[in-house]
Specification:
Pfam families: NAD_kinase, NAD_kinase_C. One of its GO terms (molecular function) is ATP binding. The protein is of the alpha+beta class. The chain has 2 domains: 108 residues, Probable inorganic polyphosphate/atp-NAD kinase, domain 1 (Rossmann fold, 3-Layer(aba) Sandwich); 139 residues, Probable inorganic polyphosphate/atp-NAD kinase, domain 2 (Tumour Suppressor Smad4, Sandwich), CATH 2.60.200. It is 18% helix and 43% strand. The strands form 2 sheets. Strands 6, 7, 8, 9, 10, 11, 12, 13, 14, 15 and 16 form an 11-stranded antiparallel sheet that branches. A 5-stranded parallel sheet has the order 2-1-3-4-5, sandwiched between helices. A hairpin with a 2-residue loop joins β14 and β15. α1 runs parallel beside α3. The chain is elongated. The two termini are 35 Å apart. The chain binds NADP nicotinamide-adenine-dinucleotide phosphate (NAP).
Length: 266
C-alpha cells in the first residue's frame, strides 16, 4: 500500500510525521506523495482540509486519516500517544472505509470564460468587500428570497461544526447527505426580508445564488479564498463524490461533538 503524510509544519507535527513515515516504511509500505492509497494528516482540522484539497482529484483512490497534535479535532481524531497503535492498524490493511458527503460548488461567470468547479469538505462562504451581498436565492429552480447582508455560508454535514456553527446553524450528522445554508447578518426590516433560519436541503434540492449587482465577491472553499468579479451565479448541491475515511475503531460523531464543545474533560 502507498501512503503520504501531510504535516502542519510545526516541530511536534513534523516529528510525528517522521516517526509514522519510518515505521510504515519498516512495515514495507511505500511512501508516495503523488498517488497515495492513504493520506495521513498530522496537525489539526485545518491540516486535514489541506490534505483533502491536495488529493481532491483522486477521492476514489485515496482514503484519509488525521492525527491531531493540538486540541481534539473532528477530522483529526487520533492522538500522538496512539501513533504506534495506528501504525500497526494501517500495516494490517485492508482498512474499513466510512464515507462523508461533500458540497459541489460551481461558479458561473457572466462572460464566456470558463466556469470554476470545486468540492468543499466544510463549506463555501460568499462575502464581498463592496457593501452588502445582494443576491437572489433559488431552491430547486424556484425563487426563494432575495438576500441582503454580510454573506452566506453553505456547509456540508461535517462542516456544520465549523463556520456554520458559529453562524447559528444546526449540527448535522454526516450520515445525512445534505447541505445547510446559513445567513451572515441579513438585513431584515420593512423593506428587506429573509427567512432568518438556517435551511437544510436534501440531496435532490440544489440551490442557485444569483447576484443582483456587479460586485466582486470573496468566495471561500474551506480554507481557500478567491476574489471573483462578473459572477453570473453560484450553484451549490450535495456532490456525487464523497470523502473516504480510513476507520480502525469507532469514534461516534456525537461523542466528538460532546468532547469538542460540551465536555469539561481534556
Ligand atoms: P482557522 O481560522 O485557522 O481555524 C478555524 C478553526 O476551525 C480551527 O480551530 C479548526 O480546527 C476548526 N475547524 C476546521 N474544520 C472544522 C470542523 N469541521 N469542525 C469543527 N471545527 C473545525 O482556519 P483553517 O484552519 O484554515 O480552517 C478553515 C475553516 O475555518 C473553514 O472551513 C471554516 O469552517 C472555519 N472558519 C470558522 C470561522 C468561525 O468559526 N467564526 C470563521 C471563518 C472560518 P483546528 O484548530 O483543529 O485546525
Amino acid at each position: 500500500m502507498k501512503f503520504a503524510i501531510l504535516s502542519k509544519g510545526d516541530k511536534k507535527s513534523d516529528e510525528i510525521k517522521t516517526r509514522i513515515k519510518q515505521y510504515l516504511i519498516d512495515f514495507d509500505l511505500i511512501y508516495d506523495e503523488d498517488a497515495p492509497d492513504l493520506a495521513i494528516s498530522v496537525g489539526g482540522d485545518g491540516t486535514f482540509l489541506e490534505a483533502f484539497h491536495t488529493y481532491v482529484h483522486r477521492l476514489k483512490d485515496t482514503a484519509f486519516i488525521g492525527v491531531h497534535t493540538g486540541h481534539l479535532g473532528f477530522y483529526a481524531d487520533w492522538v500522538p500517544e496512539e501513533v504506534e497503535k495506528l501504525i500497526i492498524e494501517i500495516a494490517k490493511t485492508p482498512f474499513q472505509v466510512v464515507e462523508y458527503p461533500l458540497l459541489e460548488v460551481i461558479i458561473n461567470p457572466k462572460s464566456d470564460s470558463q466556469k470554476d468547479q470545486f468540492l468543499a469538505l466544510n463549506e463555501c462562504s460568499v462575502k464581498t468587500t463592496e457593501g452588502s451581498v445582494v443576491l437572489d436565492i433559488e431552491i430547486k429552480g424556484e425563487h426563494f428570497e432575495t438576500f441582503r447582508g454580510d454573506g452566506l455560508c453553505i456547509s456540508t454535514p461535517s462542516g456544520s461544526t465549523a463556520y456554520n456553527k458559529a453562524l447559528g446553524g444546526g449540527i448535522i450528522h454526516p450520515s445525512l447527505p445534505s447541505i445547510q445554508i446559513t445567513e451572515m447578518a441579513s438585513i431584515n426590516n420593512r423593506v428587506f426580508r429573509t427567512i432568518g433560519s438556517p435551511l437544510i436541503l436534501p440531496q435532490h434540492h440544489d440551490c442557485l445564488l444569483k447576484p443582483l449587482y456587479d460586485r466582486s465577491f470573496l468566495i471561500s472553499i474551506d480554507h481557500i479564498t478567491k476574489s471573483y468579479a462578473n459572477v453570473q451565479s453560484i450553484e451549490c448541491r450535495v456532490a456525487k463524490e464523497k470523502i473516504r475515511f480510513a476507520r480502525f475503531r469507532s469514534f461516534p460523531f456525537w461523542k466528538r461533538v460532546r468532547d469538542s464543545f460540551v465536555s469539561d474533560e481534556l
